[in-house]
Amino acid sequence: MAYLALYRKWRPQLFEQIVGQEHITKTLQNALLAEKASHAYLFCGPRGTGKTSAAKVLAKALNCRQRSGAEPCNVCVNCREVTAGASMDVIEIDAASHRGIDEIRELREKIGFAPASGKYRVYIIDEVHMLTTEAFNALLKTLEEPPSHVVFILATTEPNKVPLTILSRCQRFDFHRLSNQHILGRLQEVIAETKAGAEEGALYLIARYAEGSLRDALSIWDQVSALGGSKVTLDDVHQLLGTVREDLLEEVARALGAGDTKLLLEIVSSLAEQGKDLRTFVRELMAFLRRILLQLVSSGVKEELSLAERERIAGITGILGREQLLGLLQMLGKTEQEMKWSSQPRILLEVALIRAAQTAVTGPDLDLVQRVARLEEISDLIRKSTFNSFSAAKKIDIKEEKAVEEKTEEIVKEKTEELKELKELKEDKPQKKETAGRKKPARKTPVDQPDQAVPGADQKSLSKQEISAAAERAQEVRADESPLLKQEEINKVPEASDDEVFFGQVSSKWADFLEITKKTNLPMHMYLSRSWPERFKDGCLTIAFPRENEIFKEYLETTENMKSVLRLVTSFFKQDLNIRLACGAPPEHYNLPEQGQELSTGTTLSLFGLDKDEKRQP
User: Fold this and answer.
1) pLDDT digits over 291-322, tens only?
2) How far apart are CA 522 and CA 524, in angstroms?
3) 121-126 and 197-198 beta bridge pairing
4) What pTM, to 2 d.p., does this model score?
5) What is the CATH number of the domain that holds 251?
């Protein structure tokens, strides 16, 4: 007699032999006992979880002549014929090869025939999702109202591809992946029956590699038992599956914790020379790091590991911390996906291991890595927002630019006329020159800028007093035009020596300051909208931000941005002072806007270093 594969030899013949699917077997048994068997079932789930086996056991139970309870007897003629695959009343159809409308029409023609020897004619359609749309439509009416002696059992690994019209006509049962304990139990039964020997670690490795499929586990054991003979070792399983030994994975984990990039590259080179699949190595390393992580946070991992593996992991748990393991798993998972489509997977793996060794550190360095990752996420979000709103912002900025240019030309023209009048006074009426210079006392400005001279004036022919007076008058006009310096929107600030009084004024007017800033410098307003004045001492005003918005503080601490903040604050409060930025908890009386509302087009452009001239470029 030809050799029978283990997964066929050990196929369940009773409901109680179907492991890991008690929620299904219990339901089917109760339906059989109550004589409430449905006319159509849908068994769906991953491969190797018992769908076809459960369908055959159900078919035997429906046609068993000597059934006691819900279990088939496996002794009568009907049961033996179903087990041998020779029953005339149990028809198995492979939908992958019989998927057309012609096959379904043939089925409809034969469905009216009475059972040959049993009570029901059972149609088991495997991989039913492979049927064509026309075939499904032809099956609809028959599936909904079949003859009383017909039962349909549909099996599929992809229920999402089955039309809803079919799903609604069936009782659906979802088969789950089997746990490692269920697979280990069945493997130990097989070993006891065949009187073979195996190391404990070998069985655990087979169970993990099967990934919940009992059929895969039995197939692997069938192969490895032929390789190892009467005694299967852990090395035999590694050799057959192409996996990596646990001691090598432990060495890699220690190298990652120590940042030993040289050793990591040597290990990769050794694996490549041995012909190992590097993607398999990455998956094995991720599984090993996962077991270490679970050992740190939970004790449930003990059920998945042998005694030797638990001892090995216990010795390495102190090398890598929880946050380090999380970062390594994320990085390796991304690398494994990239290696799948790369023509040079070894290079990707080497680069990933070098980065992993550099980032697998403790203390502040790890926090820095996480902050950089967070900044990258924020940059991506801002970049997307910028692309959506850049066009609209560009139109607005062009309008604002034209308005500013027109106003500037008007002021320059007016000041030029005034300087001409002053020149005439100097030539014709020198006695009135001093009166014109003392017409209005100079205002105290926070920063004297040399670019305040009025363009277009002939300054060589004027005295210093006349030029100074004209510049002061031009500054007064600019102050009247600027919303920051409107007298009706600000209060007179006390002397700088009275720090507490001045700080009180700043605190009470901070909301007004933000509102005025919104009109004059929208990008800077977006930064400052989540800030508040913290204190004023020795001529230095401290502006604070929430700790979660530390990124705003960091952007404003650049030289150009600090100059802009200083100019805005001194212009509004009319006080020559210094600025310092800090982080802290906001006072209760400050209602900060919700996070995420302060980003705008102006802000996003500023974050990428674009000024008004740059963002107007095509």
Assistant:
1) 888 877 776 556 666 677 777 777 777 777 78
2) 5
3) unpaired
4) 0.56
5) 1.20.272.10
